[in-house]
DNA sequence: TTGAAAGCGTTACCAC
DNA sequence: GTGGTAACGCTTTCAA
């Protein structure tokens, strides 16, 4: 029964609401015995401050918001979880607002949070144009952009260096002596696939290797997409012994199709995924992949969003994916 | 810049705040032209109602809360996602509050939500005692309990019939002519493992089969737990051709160990999991499992929590797990 | 050390 | 149709 208000406590304690407010907020200048008496009343009467009233007068809420496309996707669930941990440590409530991957709904998700007077928001947005975001960030000093880099607001971006990821995959394939190399990419119209591919190609080039255009296929970044892409690859009738795949889900789809066609992974073909989601440790063979350190990225984003004064001169926060070698790759 | 208040709009439009409030809330009795003029001002001045002020006077917030142990766990992520979908449809903000699996932190998560004046809360709690929950639900008519059944508040419970799940597994093993049967269960001190096992044993009995006590092992409900449990099983030196496993993660661990020891699934041993999480479709062999319809359960829970008048005479909401046959089982 | 009172931005009731 | 105004529960000067 959280019906008791600050007035009820004040009345019961024979003091003014001001005094009660002081003890609730650990304010100074309250007599030891009054404080104790009030505290007692608070717990026996089960008083809980009304956060709405507080937010109203303070003109801000003790909340942190996060905008993601979807809670069910393991990747975004991990992102939300990282933020949640920081939120708990700082005793602020987590507000999750989902927008599909469309500029409009991403924007809607953000305004919804702003209406709650939520000041600190970690935003994952692939579709809102740069300029819109820049304007938004200028008005809202506690917004943080995750998984995306925009020059003008770089000190409030937490992003992954996709190029390096591609490069590391290329380096590893080269080290393993592969030379007939394929790539399965995402067909989504966002930057990440392009960057990963570019990095991969540059890495290959640095080892004197090249990627045959016929061996680049695109599909939706899912298990089914991976299965589809692998079939397309096989149709090319062009030999390959290694594939760099856009993400782990696709990679598992690719492997599944390959094995159905009698090709063994890693004996006949090596596969590298991307993200290192839970899945990759459960699959057989366990997936060699590039770890997306989403947990620490999320935590840092939350910390940044919560910190009162965002330091514009802070070092920029680019993260590098780490190669995790498991069982889906092998030397030729 | 969401600085404009209702007063600013009123002033600019030369009307009273009351009138502005009416158009904001689509209230009746506003002149067509005044309404239009005000609407124009609202959008040009970028006015957004302060939700805290609104909640304060309305004594309730347009939010729905959910209490789960963890956002990162795919099962709970799916639960949260179902609720989120209903929340979006009803234009209410989703509040997620995580408590580990402990009575204390589950309780903390609930009070945190109540402080926000969140009335509708979907609670997943395994540890808070029945009586506490009953008292809580009596004071809060819009709470809903998910994944647990308590007689006294049964019309506000949405739960899965674990017994039937166990029974269906038993039926299927019997149909497949298995008779040397094992069980890998969770060692967590909650009801679900007991219920699933009881249902399984009853099902077996109805087919004249029995479960050798030596072939029941307990471990943590995770991949590693499954691996461990399978090793324990093998040590018994008691033959078995089928295993009923507590959940999919464990089942994948079990399969992994089995195959490492040279036993093929399903050729040498059939495995049935529980939950039908994403994982089970990605594993090889794809898992035969009992589907936990968490998505529809979550949606119904959300609907129930949001509905103004919870009907105490409503039919109780027990769900049955459905057997999903894939590749990890086969007839003897 | 304590109290009185002025807001914070809304909604809703009652006049006009 | 429209306006005035009292709440809602809290924090924070300013006085005492």
Automatic annotation (TrEMBL), chains A, B:
Keyword flag Transcription regulation: yes
What's a Pfam family in this record? Peripla_BP_3
Looking up PROSITE patterns in the UniProt record yields:
HTH_LACI_1, HTH_LACI_2
Ranges for the HTH lacI-type domain? 4-58
The keyword Transcription regulation belongs to this UniProt entry's keyword annotation: yes
Which controlled-vocabulary keywords does the entry list? DNA-binding, Transcription, Transcription regulation
- Superkingdom as given in the UniProt entry: Bacteria
Protein's UniProt name = Transcriptional regulator
């Amino acid at each position: 029964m959280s019906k008791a208000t600050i007035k009820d406590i004040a009345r019961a304690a024979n003091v003014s609401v001001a005094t009660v407010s002081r003890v609730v907020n650990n304010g100074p200048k309250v007599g030891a015995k009054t404080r104790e008496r009030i505290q007692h009343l608070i717990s026996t009467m089960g008083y809980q401050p009304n956060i709405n009233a507080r937010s109203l007068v303070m003109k801000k809420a003790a909340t942190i918001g996060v905008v993601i496309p979807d809670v069910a996707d393991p990747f975004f669930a991990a992102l939300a979880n990282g933020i949640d941990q920081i939120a708990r440590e700082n005793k602020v409530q987590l507000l999750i607002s989902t927008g599909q991957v469309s500029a409009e709904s991403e924007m809607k998700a953000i305004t919804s949070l702003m209406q709650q007077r939520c000041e600190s928001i970690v935003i994952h947005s692939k579709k809102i144009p740069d300029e819109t975001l820049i304007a938004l960030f200028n008005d809202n000093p506690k917004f943080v952009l995750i998984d995306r880099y925009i020059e003008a607001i770089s000190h409030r971006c937490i992003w992954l260096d996709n190029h390096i990821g591609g490069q590391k995959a290329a380096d590893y394939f080269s080290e393993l002596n592969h030379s007939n190399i394929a790539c399965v990419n995402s067909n989504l119209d966002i930057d990440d696939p392009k960057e990963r591919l570019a990095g991969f190609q540059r890495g290959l080039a640095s080892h004197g290797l090249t990627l045959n255009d016929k061996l680049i296929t695109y599909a939706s970044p899912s298990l089914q997409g991976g299965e589809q892409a692998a079939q397309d690859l096989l149709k090319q009738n062009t030999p390959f012994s290694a594939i760099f795949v856009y993400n782990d889900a696709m990679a598992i789809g690719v492997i599944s199709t390959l094995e159905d066609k009698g090709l063994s992974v890693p004996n006949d073909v090596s596969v590298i995924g991307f993200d290192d989601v839970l899945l990759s440790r459960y699959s057989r063979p366990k997936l060699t992949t590039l770890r997306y350190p989403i947990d620490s990225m999320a935590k840092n984003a939350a910390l940044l969003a919560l910190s009162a004064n965002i330091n514009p001169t802070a070092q920029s926060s680019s993260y590098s994916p780490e190669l995790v070698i498991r069982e889906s790759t092998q030397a030729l």
